[in-house]
Amino acid sequence: MVFLRRQKVNKDIVFINPLAHVRYEFNPLGLQLLAKSCKDNGFNANIIDLANDFIKENKIFDNSTKKWIEDKIKDIDSDIIGITVMNASLPWVEYIIKVIKNEDKNKKIILGGPQVTALQSELFKLFGNQVDYLVVYVYEGEQVIVRLIEFIKSKKVFLIYRIMSIQLMTIYKLSTHQLVMRKLISALLKI
């Protein structure tokens, strides 16, 4: 008998649907669209659906919840993690970020979704240097995420110009604590 060892595929990006304080299953269509867009553009993408897994596994919110989250996300095989943020999930998002950064400070974290769009400046204050990018949905996230992954992976100046020219003013880099994109766009367009 021959045993085939399953090879672990490194993901370009892993999306996380965090826990929320609701007890019904829902289909994370936004994350599914983002993952499909990534795959259509040649990137490996995966979704960790904590919200629905929690319900399917008949979990309850108690002292074991944080350990359960840690076990689910401890082996993320990507340097880029995208997390959707909604009102009900914000406390869990904060904990997920803490776990990820404690595991590997070099992983890039992108936050997007309704809460990020609604409360940009508050999230700047809340997350400081823990989160690398906020994506505010003025444009379609399926287009923005692909360009952002290209940018993070390449770090080439010509690509930055290309990103700016397709109107990615919606991405905010948090590690510098400033709205980098608007200033960068005007500077790059003068070149």
Automatic annotation (TrEMBL):
<dbReference type="Pfam" id="PF02310">
    <property type="entry name" value="B12-binding"/>
</dbReference>
<keyword id="KW-0949">S-adenosyl-L-methionine</keyword>
<dbReference type="InterPro" id="IPR051198">
    <property type="entry name" value="BchE-like"/>
</dbReference>
<keyword id="KW-0411">Iron-sulfur</keyword>
<feature type="domain" description="B12-binding">
    <location>
        <begin position="10"/>
        <end position="159"/>
    </location>
</feature>
<dbReference type="InterPro" id="IPR006158">
    <property type="entry name" value="Cobalamin-bd"/>
</dbReference>
<dbReference type="InterPro" id="IPR036724">
    <property type="entry name" value="Cobalamin-bd_sf"/>
</dbReference>
<protein>
    <recommendedName>
        <fullName>B12-binding domain-containing protein</fullName>
    </recommendedName>
</protein>
<keyword id="KW-0479">Metal-binding</keyword>
<keyword id="KW-0408">Iron</keyword>
